[in-house]
Structure formats: C-alpha cells, structure tokens
Structure to design on (559 residues):
C-alpha cells in the first residue's frame, strides 16, 4: 500500500480513489434526526463490529464474574431500602469493591473527586459568587463560621464552584416501584494553600441543594449536623453522576467524536496519511455507540431505569451539554484540553497546584501534539500541499457542514499544517485519554452506590435545621437506591470499566510507511517516560490517579 496524498497519485489511481470513496459514502450515511443537533451514523457497516478477539476477551472478563457475584450477594428484598450504609459494602462478594469505598464519606474524598474523580471537568474558579447561588458572602460567612475569611479567599482567587443548577429542568423518571428524583445543587470549595499548615487541599465550603427555590433551600456547610451535610454531599454526587454519564462521558466523548469517524470513512481514501493516522483511534466506536443507543439509552433500558430523569430528560442533558447552554456548548477548539481547563480558570498551577486530571492530561496532550506534528510533517511540507489535498479539504468541509458533521470550532477549509495539527490532536486526545479518564473511573467512583447514586428515590429535601439532624438514617436509606437498583448500577459500571481492548500508541498493524513507524516509536518511548512520571507523582498523591497512565489509556472509544 502506497501512502499518498491524492494529488500525488497517478490520474488512474486518483480515479480509483474517487470511485471507491463514492461507494463508501453510501455505506456511511448521516442520521441527523437521532438527537439534534448531534449527528450520528445511519447504519453501521459490518466491518465496524467488535472483532472476535474483542468479544472473546471482553465477555469472560465481565459477565462471568458479575454472574457469580450476583449469585453470591444475598439480597434480602429487592425493593426494600437497606438498613444502614455499611450494607452497601456487601454487594462485592466475587468482584473487588470500588476504591472509593473506604473514604467516600470524608470531605477530602468529596473534594478530591472534583480534581481526580470520574467527572473532573465541572469545577470552576470564581471571581465573584455565582449568580445561581441564592446567598451572598455575608450569609456564607455566617453559616461557615470563622475557620476561613471567605471574602479574602474570594479576592485571592481561592474559591471554586461545582454548579449543577442547569439540571433543575429534570422532573425525574420512574422505576418499577415508583418515582426517581434529581437534585440540581451548587457546591462551593476553597483551595487552602500551604499557609494552613498542609500541603494544600481543596475543602468544601457550602452546598445549596435547590438554588432554583431561592431561600426556601437552606445553605449547608461542613459544620452543619452530620446527617444533613452527608445528605447535601450525596445530592451533589447524584447530580454529578448524571452529568458525568450524559454530558461528560456520552456527549463530550462518545457522541462528539462520531462525526469524525463517519466523515473520515466518507472522504479519506484508506491510503491517505490522515486516514491511516486516525482510523485506529476510531476502532469499534461507531458500533459501540450504536450498541449504546440500542441497549443503554433506549426506552426501558439502563439509563431509563437507573438514571434520575425520564429517558427523554436524560437525553436532554446530552443536548443541553452539546448545544443549548451558551457558555458550554461543545466545540472542538473550546474542548481542546489546555483551552477547556483555562476556560474554567483551572490553568493556574500556582493557584491550584493539585489537579491530577490537568497535570497528567497535559503530559499526554503535549505528547500527542508532538506525535501528530511529526507525523503530519512527513506528508505536508508546505501549505500548498495541504491546500491542494482535495480529500482533506472535502473532509474538513463535510465535518463542518450543516448537512454533515455540524462540528463547531474548526475551519471548513484548512489552510495551514498548524490548523490541522490542532484538529487532529484534539480528536486523538478525546478518543484516547479523555474517554479513558471518564470511562474507566466509572466503577471506582460510581460503582460504590452511596458515593454516587445515579438517582434519588425520595423527593429532594431543601430545608434543614442548623442545630440538629433533619433526617433520620432510615430516611437517608430510603433516599438511596433500593437493592435491585444498586445491583443494576454496579453491574453496568463494572461491565463498562472492566475491559481494555488496546493501549494508546500501540496499533494492531504497523504503519505501512517506515518513516511514520519511526515517528510512532518515538511517541511510544515518550509514553513510557510519562508512565514513570505519573507513577512518581502518584507516590506523592493522597489518592493515586491511575486512569491517565498511558498504559491504561485506550486508542479509541471502544467501550
Ligand atoms: Mn465509554
């Protein structure tokens, strides 16, 4: 196979390329109606299916163990609430329990999940109190007490927010035995630097569970009665879990990358260097996404059953994440890792020295960027070569076209290699590290149910006493998922976290061009250096951050 830009092929070969692509466009068609404005594939061609190896490895790795575990767990009654929080620990008889289990109730663990948990892209640095919060600084200080001077902390840029108020539209779906609920809280945090005698840590300051109700909704702090504070943190975790699955995971990785796989198959001939570079990063994605649409986000499916909203509402969270929230709609350039982190104000290493997702993610981002640069420069030695590459220009044109991929944040005509490097780096980073970071954390965080229930099973409480517990343990247990739902949540998140098909930078077949293979080998060496660097960092972290170790990152969104 001769790797070539189309304009460098002989006229006969150019004709062959064009005819082949025309045929391929009838195999890979767009479906714009599934969940507008997202674009998905109409029918998945057979060659996109999981391979025999994938199936042979993945199924035993998950189903066997899960079946044995389900048999071993003695579920007394499927629908009655459990008696106490420790009972949630009994669900892991034949599978290892999620790593968050021993510490989930602590404030440290709650705060750390904003920085290295399953959903590390919500936290934002504050310059002023968020308008969604009902209370002002005086209210906050009065509720929090004197442990911190909040006005000073705000002025110094040490306050952060996790804001889930955009989820307030969700009324809640149903399960076999009744109704489910979704809180839409706001949580404030403070970075306490080394001046407080620690190595620096993020601490929670306050939570308002239902800011859309105004002062009907109390302000809770770590100094609130213990059960009230635990309830408030659980509300944040429920909102975060729903946001994680529908926005961060499904929308910002699985669905936004789908048009790139479709258009690459439609516009780039298999010997096009960009097709050769990208195709391993799309492996199994179209098939896997279609499977998710048929079996996870279908009527009566897992999302419908386990997440808080109705199926329609959960899908609206996907759409909202992509499009309707003016500040946050997805675009390729805004979600480039360095930009995305900067837009949330979390790029300042001095202000926030501890942010594993950012620190490990940037190592991978930079390595991918160098790899992509070195690779593309083998084929594009001038801007003209790029501009004359009519397959590439058709690729960019269709990706951005309103009847094609509708991708925002990239040009419809690519003029410079730098533009192309930026696009390709974002795509490979999203398919690889970004998806792995939010996929393989599912079991360790959302797999332990009281840490991150996917739904509430009682109406959300808003009013709390400042001096005594406003709910009993029994009421808390009724609020959390009943055993049958617990089992369902464990099973799906275990299944989605248990199998890795491949690893970043290692492909099933070598590049046909030996020069490209040299570039790839250099990338692999760099990944090994990063591996050691992250291992060293993890020795100094209270909670090791494992998912961005290159050996645990996949090439593609294959699970
Ligand atoms: Mn996934």
């Amino acid at each position: 196979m001769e790797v070539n830009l189309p304009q460098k092929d002989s006229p006969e070969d150019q004709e062959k390329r064009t005819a082949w692509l025309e045929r391929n466009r009838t195999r890979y068609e767009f479906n714009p109606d599934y969940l507008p404005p997202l674009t998905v594939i109409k029918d998945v061609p057979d060659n996109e299916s999981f391979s025999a190896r994938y199936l042979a490895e993945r199924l035993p790795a998950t189903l066997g163990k899960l079946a044995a575990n389900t048999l071993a767990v003695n579920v007394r009654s499927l629908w009655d609430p459990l008696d106490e929080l420790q009972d949630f620990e009994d669900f892991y008889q034949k599978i290892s329990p999620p790593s968050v289990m021993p510490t989930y109730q602590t404030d440290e663990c709650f705060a750390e999940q904003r920085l290295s948990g399953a959903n590390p892209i919500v936290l934002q640095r504050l310059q002023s109190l968020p308008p969604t919060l009902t209370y002002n600084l005086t209210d906050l200080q009065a509720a929090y007490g004197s442990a911190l001077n909040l006005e000073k902390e705000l002025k110094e840029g040490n306050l952060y927010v996790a804001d889930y108020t955009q989820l307030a539209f969700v009324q809640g779906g149903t399960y076999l035995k009744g109704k489910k609920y979704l809180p839409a809280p706001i949580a404030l945090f403070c970075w306490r630097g080394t001046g407080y005698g620690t190595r620096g840590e993020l601490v929670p300051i306050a939570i308002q569970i239902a800011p859309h109700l105004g002062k009907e909704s109390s302000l809770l702090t770590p100094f609130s009665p213990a059960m009230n504070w635990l309830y408030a943190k659980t509300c944040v975790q429920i909102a975060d879990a729903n946001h994680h699955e529908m926005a961060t995971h499904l929308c910002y990785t699985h669905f936004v990358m789908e048009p790139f796989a479709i258009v690459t198959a439609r516009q780039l001939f298999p010997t096009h260097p960009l097709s050769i570079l990208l195709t391993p990063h799309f492996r199994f994605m179209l098939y896997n996404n279609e499977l998710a649409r048929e079996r996870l986000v279908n009527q009566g499916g897992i999302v419908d059953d386990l997440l808080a909203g109705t199926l329609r509402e959960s899908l609206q969270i996907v759409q909202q994440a992509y499009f309707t929230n003016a500040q946050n709609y997805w675009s390729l350039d805004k979600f480039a890792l360095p930009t995305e982190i900067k837009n949330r104000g979390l790029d300042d290493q001095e202000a926030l020295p501890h942010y594993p997702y950012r620190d490990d993610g940037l190592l991978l981002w930079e390595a991918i960027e160098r790899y992509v640069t070195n690779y593309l420069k083998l084929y594009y030695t001038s801007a003209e070569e790029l501009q004359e590459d009519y397959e590439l220009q058709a690729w960019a044109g269709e990706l951005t076209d309103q009847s094609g991929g509708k991708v925002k944040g990239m040009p419809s005509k690519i003029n410079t290699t730098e533009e192309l490097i930026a696009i390709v780096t974002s795509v490979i980073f999203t398919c690889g590290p970004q998806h792995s970071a939010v996929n393989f954390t599912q079991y360790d965080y959302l797999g332990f149910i009281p840490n991150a229930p996917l739904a509430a099973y009682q109406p959300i409480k808003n009013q709390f006493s400042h001096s005594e517990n406003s709910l009993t343990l029994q009421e808390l247990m009724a609020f959390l998922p009943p055993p049958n739902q617990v089992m369902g949540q464990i099973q799906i998140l275990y299944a989605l976290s248990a199998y890795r098909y491949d690893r970043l930078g290692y492909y099933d077949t070598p590049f046909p061009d030996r020069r490209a293979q040299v570039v790839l080998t250099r990338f692999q060496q760099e990944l090994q250096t990063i591996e050691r660097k992250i291992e060293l960092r993890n020795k100094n972290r209270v909670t090791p951050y494992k998912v961005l170790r290159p050996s645990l990152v996949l090439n593609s969104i294959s699970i």
